Amino acid sequence: MAKRLVIDRFEGKYAICEDSEQKYFAIETTELPADASEGCVLLISEEGELRLDTEETERRRKEMAEKQRRAFGG
Question: How many domains in the chain?
């Protein structure tokens, strides 16, 4: 089963990523898929291969946008 991480932020040449247990990992940006950005969901295969989970990333972005809309009365 693939491990899932979310890119929290970038610091220098590292992407700081968080897993479901709120543990943080630093991954060199050169190891990331080309279109990875903050908030993107990454899947790590058993072999250590990184790929974007575009479906989960989009779902999370829509969820956050809805929370912001409700919070700010938009």
Answer: 1
The predicted structure's pLDDT at residue 2? 80
In the DSSP assignment, the letter for residue 51 is E
Give me the domain span that covers residue 38.
3-71
Q: Write down the pTM of the prediction.
A: 0.87
Of 33, 51, 40, 46, the residue nearest 17 (C-alpha): 40
CATH number for the domain that contains residue 20: 2.40.50.140
Residues 74 and 14: their CA atoms lie apart, in Å, by 35
For 36-48, what is each residue's pLDDT tens digit?
999 999 999 999 9
Residue by residue, DSSP assigns 22-37 as S-EEEEEGGGS-TT--
According to the model, what pLDDT value does residue 74 have? Answer: 64
